[in-house]
Design goal:
Strands 1-2-3 form a three-stranded parallel β-sheet, with no helix packed on it. The protein has a single domain, classed as 5'-nuclease (Rossmann fold, 3-Layer(aba) Sandwich), CATH 3.40.50. α1 packs across α2, α1 packs parallel to α3 and α3 packs antiparallel against α4. It is of the alpha/beta class and about 90 residues long. The chain starts with a strand and ends with a helix. The radius of gyration is 14 Å and the shape is globular. The protein contains five helices and three strands.
């Protein structure tokens, strides 16, 4: 079983055809036999990217809804502690 840290740019390449690459398609094709992790701020990054894509008319309203549905169904484990270290290093 492969382990992979999923970032917003990979997910957006699945949703925006002009950003797709061979590598990101392979990641998507291997989704069923992999464990995917994301940092705590991942959903915020994805949501922001969707808003920007919609504002630039790269996604229509239906595309945004489809993307949000996909996001809610992805078996991604969120590392809630990933932002804590940054805060501690910066302010303490």
């Amino acid at each position: 079983m492969r382990k992979f840290v999923l970032d917003a740019s990979v997910l957006m390449s699945w949703l925006l055809p002009d950003e797709a690459s061979y590598e990101t398609k392979e990641i998507k094709n291997g989704f069923s036999d992999s464990v995917y992790w994301a940092q705590a701020h991942w959903k915020l990054e994805v949501t922001n990217s969707l808003c920007v894509a919609e504002g630039r008319r790269r996604l229509v309203e239906g595309g945004v809804l489809e993307a949000l549905q996909l996001l809610s169904e992805l078996p991604v484990l969120i590392d809630d502690s990933s932002d804590n270290g940054l805060y501690l290093r910066r302010y303490h």
